[in-house]
Fold this protein.
Amino acid sequence: MILPLAHENLRGRRWPWVTIGIIALNTVIFLFTNGPMEQQLARTGQIELHILLLSGLYPDTPMTPEASEIVQAYKLDHPEIYAQIEAANRTQFVDDWDAQIHSSDYSAADASTEMSQLCAELTDAQSNSIAWNYAFHSVHPFARTYITATFLHGGWLHLIFNMWFLWLAGTILEDLWGRVIYPIFYLAAGALAWAVQGAVFPHSLVPALGASGAIAGLMGAFLFRFPKTRIRLGWLLWIKMIKFYVPAYIILPIWLFLQILPGLFARAFGLEAGVAYWAHIGGFAFGALGAFLLQTTGVEHTADKAVEAKVTWTADPLIVHATDSLAVNMVDDAVFALRKLLAQDPDSLDGWDLMLKAQTRKQDVEGEKEALSALCRLHVMHGDLETAATEYESLKNFGGAELPRGVRLELCKYFESLERWETAVEEYEKLAQAYPTHRAGVSALVSAGRICLGHLYAHDRAEKFFKTAQASPAPHADLDSEIQDGLGKCAVSVAQPGQYGR
């Protein structure tokens, strides 16, 4: 399972109170509605099933318009199944009630009485049903449900995943559009998503609910406005989480494709899935188009300036200048401003982060390497080793660059803590090669030998590292006992079956 964990633009200019409010509202509504809604859906579903079974066997039995609507919708969406229901000689029954209406002593008068009772029960169940009144029903949509359905959820996982995606996509858009345009956009995306779902499955009896259509709209807007933003993903592999970055312009189209494929399959075969794929597709398309219109009409720019005027803190003027320059693609101007800023404050994380974006836009490889090196150093300084390691991997893709000894050592320890043994050995070896006459180089060789011996079972490699450490001209008296111990183990060790290295 691959899950989004974060993205590099999560830091905003002020707290995303609208997004927090939407998450809180969804959670409170879920706590009050989930239990009753499950019970109500079970009751309503049983009544609807009995109406369908009775109408199939006694098609001329009078029924209310609501019941007739359910029967007609089901016949249109599932004609083959309804044909089986209509078969008078059926020998397999859904339940005891179904068997009873097929008994020889059951008459048309009994069917009429039973249908009247079922219709009354349906009316009562629908009038008191949260799902019927506030979820979206394609077969009979109420105007309010285009909004209210977005605030209902069918289970804890449904709620948690939706709210997490909302946080990731919504906070940056709220920061960009402000606290008026953003919630209007969110609600409009949700409403249009349900409209698309209803258009594709116009006779559906299944109540559709959840915030995923509206959130898909935010994802579409995110892709249009921030296509190069790197999204940190986590690949859950057994009990380990492998983390990596993927640009939005790659991962979000893949997500959309994974909605379109089953959506087309469901539409082609007239099958409704447990996931409202067409609501996702409609919401995503609306989001991308809506973001395009907000930008091109200048509404977004006006909103962004209004947010800037209201924030309680002010960014460095050079940061603001560089950000504005990048927004209009004046990359050289942005780089000039950032050079001036970093000359004054070499440890500005925001400055180097913007510099990396500018150099990437400029396709200046040396500039990107410089920015990545600085970001590695600063993230290690701030204790964010996970991000530092990610930046270091990117730096290696450009051919690498010089890093301070302490930064290299912390990265080595981090890879070792993740049990990425081969990577840790490789980095310890590089550290030793970079500082052959320094004690840190000897210590790195000893660490590499220890990992090869204890985890990779590569005692030949371990012996090489320990002997190189032993012969180093750098002072290392405090490491001698560990070196001798390692060499002793190498002399008597035997490669273990099923392992590699010898």
The first strand starts at residue 2 and ends at 7. Confidence is low (pLDDT under 50) at residues 495-502. Residues 37 and 130 are 6 Å apart (CA to CA).
